[in-house]
Amino acid sequence: xxxxxxxxxxxxxxxxxxxxxxxxxxxxxxxxxxxxxxxxxxxxxxxxxxxxxxxxxxxxxxxxxxxxxxxxxxxxxxxxxxxxxxxxxxxxxxxxxxxxxxxxxxxxxxxxxxxxxxxxxxxxxx
Length: 126
Hints:
Mean pLDDT: 96
Structural class: alpha+beta
Number of domains: 1
Number of helices: 4
Number of strands: 9
CATH superfamily: RNA polymerase II/Efflux pump adaptor protein, barrel-sandwich hybrid domain
Radius of gyration: 13 Å
Low-confidence stretches: none
Strand content: 25-35%
């Protein structure tokens, strides 16, 4: 499983890349492989305020529909419009072109509470 060292993770398999006070969020390589072929991604509209661990969208695959949970609180400032036409980017490039939302983080120290790459990788072995 690909677990980039420059990201933070959640137990529900979201990843976070913090740049300044903006967090880019997607689902992990492990999550996309468990879901199978992603056929549709439902994302919130920019401007929506999200609470920590609030459901902010869904990923639909050939196997199931899975909720997405906000790893940090803040306001959605951008969504990945490319996923409307190319939802398969979640499978082929989960840490790049398959990102889902960008959130203006209310408290950037909240990112420190997320799982380190090592802790996330270890949680996959449980």
